[in-house]
Structure formats: structure tokens, C-alpha cells
Amino acid sequence: VKFPIIGDADRSISTAFGMLDAGNSDEQELPLTIRAVFIINPENKLMLSLNYPACVGRNMDEIFRCVQALQLSYEKSIATPANWPHNHSDIPMPDGSRSGDFAGSVFLLPTVSAEEADARYPGYHTCDVPSKIPYLRLVKKEQVQ
């Protein structure tokens, strides 16, 4: 493991962060801790918090997916859509047809200029939206991995 994992045997962290499940207790009648996951970026900013009740286990595939998405966003200035990396896309094209070529694609962040997008992700697709503002830009998954 290349990232810190924190144990909390005395429940001091759990207490400080309100992570106790009052509805479930152990043999000593102490509240169980919820299953919490905090992902913190290199600047020590909380990027993701997942809380599961004590009776529900964590989904490690989802946690791994979130870490991957956050790393890609941090390193490549992209955002991942719902269900990424298995998201489907049926993108309307300028000629009125629909394209499924963008399955697994990601979005460029609005902070990425057109010049930077052209340089880093040639061939990205700008979706035609009613406002005509070119903010919804898709990048194929092959270009960000």
C-alpha cells in the first residue's frame, strides 16, 4: 500500500469526527464506528468522504475507482462521469447522427483552455449544447490512461 491507512483502536479519531454509530454497540455497550473512508489530496484537502453504517461493509472496488478518478483529475485536468470507467455514451454529433465512440470517456475540466485541450488531447469532442457554450468536452479513455 502506497498511502497511509490510519487505525483508531481507542476511538479518539472516530469520536472527534463524529463517526460513531449510536444504533450499534459492542459487548461493552460502546458504540461501533461507522465504516468511513477519507481521501485526502497531496495538499491535505479532503477530496472524498464515504460513510457506511457499521452493518454495511465498504466496497473496495468503488474506493479504488474513486482513487483512480481523483488521481486522473488531479494529474490530467479531467472529470469522470457517472459509472466511469464503464460509462456508456451515445453522443449526438453535429450531423444529427449519434456516436457510441466515447464509451468510457471523461470530461475536460472547464479550467482547461481550448489551446491546452488541443495540445494535450487532440481530437477531443465538444458536445453541441443548446446554449452553444463549448464547455462539455469529451476525451476518449485511451487519451488519459
UniProtKB/TrEMBL annotation:
One of its GO terms (cellular component) is mitochondrion. PANTHER family: MCG48959-RELATED, PEROXIREDOXIN. One of its GO terms (biological process) is cell redox homeostasis. It comes from the Eukaryota. InterPro entries: Thioredoxin-like_sf (IPR036249). This is Peroxiredoxin. The lineage of its organism: Eukaryota, Sar, Stramenopiles, Ochrophyta, Bacillariophyta.
